[in-house]
Amino acid sequence: MEGAILKIRNLRTYFFTRRGIVKAVDGVTFDLVKGECLCLVGESGCGKTVTALSILGLIDSPPGRIVGGEIFYHNMDLAKCSAEKLRHIRGKEIAMIFQDAQSALNPVFTIGDQIVEQIKLHLEVSHREARDKAISRLKEVGIPSPEEVANYYPHQLSGGMKQRAMIAMSLSCDPRLLIADEPTTAVDVTIKAQIIDIFHQLKETRKMSLLFITHELGIVSEIGDRIVVMYAGRVAETAVGSELLNNPKHPYTSGLIKCLPDITQERERLESIPGTVPSLIDLPSGCLFHPRCDKAIAICREKQPPPVIVNHGHTVFCHRY
Amino acid sequence: MGKTWLRDYIIKRLFYAIIIAWGILTVTFILVRIGPTSPADKYLTNLAARGEEPAQVIAAIEARYGLDKPIHEQYISYIGNLARGDWGWSFSTSMPVIELIKTHWIYSFQLILFSTILAALVGILIGIYSAVRQYSKTDYIATFFSFIGISIPNFWLGVMLILLFAVQLGLFKTYYDTGIPLLSLANLKQLILPVVTLGTGMMAGYTRYTRSAMLDNLRKEFVRTARAKGLPERVVIGKHVFRNAILPLVTIIMFDLGSIVFGGAYLTEIVFGIPGLGRISFNAIFADDYAVVVAVTLISAFLILLINLTTDIAYAYLDPRIRYD
Amino acid sequence: MTKKGIKHLAGKVGGIKNLILILLATLWGLTLLADIFVVEKIFDPLGYLYIALGIVALLYVVQPLYASRRLVQYYWQRVKRNRLAVLGLAFILFLILLAVFGPLFTTDPTAANFEQKNLPPVGFTTEESIYNPQTAQFTTKTISGTWEHPLGTDNKGRDLLAMIISGAGVSLQVGLLATGIAIALGTLIGVVSAYLGGKVDNILMRFTDIMMTFPFFLLLVFIVFIFGPNLAFIVLVIGLTGWTGTARLIRSETLSLRTREFILAAKALGASDGRIILAHLVPNVVSLIVVIATLSIPGVIMAEAALSFIGLGDPAVTSWGMVLRAGQQSLDTTWWVAVAPGIMLFFTVLAFNFVGDGLRDAFDPRSSV
């Protein structure tokens, strides 16, 4: 794709456990264009977090490993990078924030110290300058009295504040790409809205690229430019936000959208997709979704569906097209 | 918040420590007084054995120990004496107990100090390595040896070391020579076997505790964040993980001190003939010299109280979650 | 007494088991008092401890285990998978057999036989210098071990194997009884303290803190010094000083259990405090108690051995510590006497540690054994 800063090609990350090989990510391909917000969507366990962790090489190495594929960041294949090189990219070019801010922040160091540590690691600045930078980042994410908050420990902050602090920390070295792993999942509804606002703001002011991981379709429509839908370790469909939500092609995607409760409609029961997500050790043959798909045909059981370009920028992995 | 909290906490802990100290004194007093033979009886038996006239001495003893007074008065004078520094008279060595302690504490101190340093340095480092390289060969070997270290009776280890290195190989003397000046290499040499004896058990424990504390923390989310920030692995482990692992470690080590180290030091002194507080208490037991035994028991309890207090305060300082609650 | 009457009484004390306990305890107490003040010896002091512990164990350990046989089976399966724990159990079994049947095959451990002193174990030889006053010279004589004394003898001619076997019996008994006392006391204090809370909790915990501040072994030595070394007494004292750690652990576990729903449910159904403590709380801390008990036994055995080693053990009893002491005193002539008891102690402690660890893993729902 034009202007893509991240190109993932056929990424496969497996976990080798006593009970079998868990194919957490099994052939994922997508591009992330500079300045856009790409949303990685799917149910729990579909491989979105593992994809994100693979990008930065943060997979726990026994038992997991990237077994195949490429992750191109500016023509550098991160999957084959040395650990040293990866370290220079982490936190500086590509930053990542996690779901639960309370456990993601180190409880025995102050917020300020944790941010300053990152700044001094990557940038050649004095302690004073690093501290000033840290405070300005805290301000940027909307934390009141940032000079004071910098001296607080994580447990002294509220949930929303912790989340903001984590975002501030990730921005400390002005990364080009920010990976956000379910940043709104563990927070209250009101905080959710605030966090989304921060991301909007970051997109505007910093012109940052964003890889936003979530399982909530509502969030996706708010913030996503393009959406990648994942299922059981593979990509099901990729499209521009509005296109995907109005015109979903893959049965899984349309199923997901139908599941969203609609407050305007008169309904007796909520919709759901029949069946359950397959175990990643014991995957079905052919198209992974076929056991639950009401539109499945014979070939779906045999072969993996190839990508079909349905529209401009809209690709779907399904045999029916 | 912050500023006065630490001071208030320290004051609270000090106050509590005083209560415990009172408790220690009282329990000791009760134990001595409900014993089948009073201190006077034992003293008398020994005097009689040395040929002195019992009848005369009885009165003197009773006056001296205040045993003719009612029990609560005895109690008050007991505490009063201790506070004033009058810890009684050791007749088996013919000097005030305080003097005896003053001349001998240093031997216990050096033994415990060196053993703790050895055990902490080696134990903690191995524990960290073991945790970081879990399931590796080194981990298995370290775990194996720490199991052995905890299970070996430390007094037997001392005897075995003497058997091997002193008797069979002749590398060391079989007893501790007090003639050698303390601040000398020769002294360090003769401390090797005792320190190894006492330190091994401690080291094994420290390795295990460090390993488990580190493992617990290695699993936590903030480790992933630290790596995502781009920190080199040694900083992630050495700074982020270790700083968190230290907290439970401090508690466990402090608990160990009370239950194991002092007892171990007592036995080590006896095995090697080191004239520390343990050994003089041991000698006093077989000479029925009550005052010394009581004194050493009290001192050890107070020391542990002090260590507990210090550790509590240090812990509050180390764990911000306690400080700012 | 009518059946209804018994039921009513049982209800008052929190259950039929508690009633039986009170009855048997009273009987035990009366017998003890009679023994002290009225008649000649009915039971050995150690015997009383066994009976007391036996009653408690039967009512609160054996019967509950039997009642939940399937659960016990399940945990046993889990434990079996841990090879070290199984090894440990095998050794302990061996030790028990040794202690029970060994004395049938060996001589009296206290029998001094100066003819046969200083014999090395089978397969070893030592040299002894004998001074011949007639020739005014030293001649060296080689002595080898014989099967009559497979482990050799000490400098008084006592058979080492017999002493080791006797020591096994002592250590096992002390381990069992003293740990039993310590655990029972610690559990009682811990549970009561946590459940009743408030002032009771405060006072009990202050007391626990005070006792905990004394270094365990020094306190032991102190008390034995004051009261005299007697095996039953030593067992009692170890038990009465070693409960503090257990009390703390049980208390914190109970605290976390106490706020759980099933306790509130029992309260809502009108259960008395006593009943809640004994029928609901204690069974849930049982797994913790079992692990603590198994891991406490080595400490207790070591404590008794250490006491005997420094000479404060019961002089009428041959324990491993005592043998080690004898060995140390003649290290240059009969080194085997010092080696053997230590090895036994080491393996015993190791065995209990392995089993304790195995039990802990088996009970931990998070570990996939």
**What is the C-alpha radius of gyration of chain A, as a whole number of Å?**
20 Å
User: What is the number of beta strands of chain B?
Assistant: 2
Instruction: Kindly estimate the percentage of residues of chain A that lie in beta strands according to DSSP.
Output: 25-35%
What's the number of extended β-strand segments of chain A? Answer: 12
Q: How would the global form of chain A be characterised?
A: globular
- The secondary structure category of chain A is alpha/beta
Largest sheet of chain B: 2 strands, antiparallel
Mean pLDDT of chain A: 88
Counted by DSSP, the helix tally of chain B is: 13
Taking the alpha carbons of the first and last residues of chain B, their distance comes to: 9 Å
How many DSSP helices of chain A? 12
Mean pLDDT of chain B: 83
Calculate the terminal CA-CA distance of chain A, rounded to whole Å: 22 Å
**Helicity range of chain A:** 25-40%
Give me the oligomer status.
Answer: heterotrimer
Helix content bin of chain B: over 70%
Uncertain stretches of 5 or more adjacent residues of chain B: none
Strand content of chain B: under 5%
By helix and strand content of chain B, what is the structural category? Answer: mainly alpha
Low-confidence stretches of chain A: none
Overview of this structure, please?
The complex is a heterotrimer of chains A (321), B (325) and C (369). Chain A is globular, with a radius of gyration of 20 Å. Chain A is an alpha/beta fold. Helices cover 33% and strands 26% of the residues of chain A. Chain A has helices at residues 48-55, 83-89, 101-104, 111-122, 127-140, 146-149, 159-171, 189-206, 217-223, 241-246, 251-259, 298-302, and strands spanning 4-17, 20-33, 37-41, 64-73, 76-77, 94-97, 177-181, 209-214, 226-231, 234-240, 307-311, 314-317. Chain A has twelve helices and twelve strands. In chain A, strand 4 and strand 5 form a beta hairpin. Chain B has 325 residues and is mainly alpha-helical. In chain B, 80% of the residues lie in helices and 1% in strands. Chain B is built from 13 helices and two strands. Chain B has helices at residues 2-33, 39-49, 54-65, 71-84, 97-132, 137-151, 154-168, 185-218, 221-228, 233-272, 277-286, 290-318, 320-323; strands at residues 89-90, 95-96. In chain B, strands 1-2 form a two-stranded antiparallel ribbon. In chain B, strand 1 and strand 2 form a beta hairpin. The longest helix of chain B is centred in the C-terminal third of the chain and has 40 residues, at 233-272. Chain C has 369 residues and is mostly helical. Chain C is built from 14 helices and two strands; from the N terminus they run αααααββααααααααα. A two-stranded antiparallel ribbon of chain C has the order 1-2. Chain C is elongated, with a radius of gyration of 25 Å. The mean pLDDT of chain C is 82. Classes of the chains: A alpha/beta (321), B mainly alpha (325), C mainly alpha (369). Chains B and C meet through helix 1, helix 6, helix 7, helix 10 and helix 11 of B and helix 7, helix 8, helix 12, helix 13 and helix 14 of C.
